[in-house]
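tool=predict chain=A
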Amino acid sequence: MQKLWAALLIPALGCASTVARLPGEIPTQSGNATTPCESTEWLVLAPTESREVSHSGRSSVARKDGFGAYRVGESHPESIPGLAERLGSSPIIDRHKAGVERHDNKLMLAGGLGAAGVIALGIGSYFFATSFDTKTTKNSDGTTEEDQDVNGGRLGGGAALIAAGFGLGIAGIVVSPSSGERARADQSRYVFTPPEDDPEAVKSMVARHNSGVRDRCAKPGAAAAR
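tool=predict ok
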């Protein structure tokens, strides 16, 4: 039963990221963070490897010409859709949002179906196990007899819930994103890829953000407040 429940929960679980930071940094007009205050919000652009999945989804190759946005000292890139509040809305950010939306919606649906399946299995198993009751009857001669009493309604309900749990779990596995879809979503979520993403436009967005961080940190008391 534990293995079954684990299988039904697989759709709700995330997967290991298929992106990795490569050595080096990509300079921007804002330069590098110069104070601890700046380092808390500063963004660094660095080469980033990702998996480029074929249209069929059956094969992939390593792509190393992309780049990601990182916090100072971090090795895992920031989510590009999550940068919208800091970098502002742009066609580049919107493209990456659209790239992860379908995957995330499928993942949420699969997770919901898997969780519902586990709940249905649990309740159904309880009903099934409690459908049987042993009644003890004492005879006039002092002997006792035990009869098995079956609650048919409870038994049927438990069996139906167990079947529904299996069905929901299988449906969750079916709609769960494939490995190719997860790799594409990782690339959209974390990696700017030329020529679709203009490197100069990305560098300008990051430079504006970093300049704003520098200006805020230059204000009296800003460093102490952090």
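The radius of gyration is 28 Å. Residues 89 and 220 are 30 Å apart (CA to CA).
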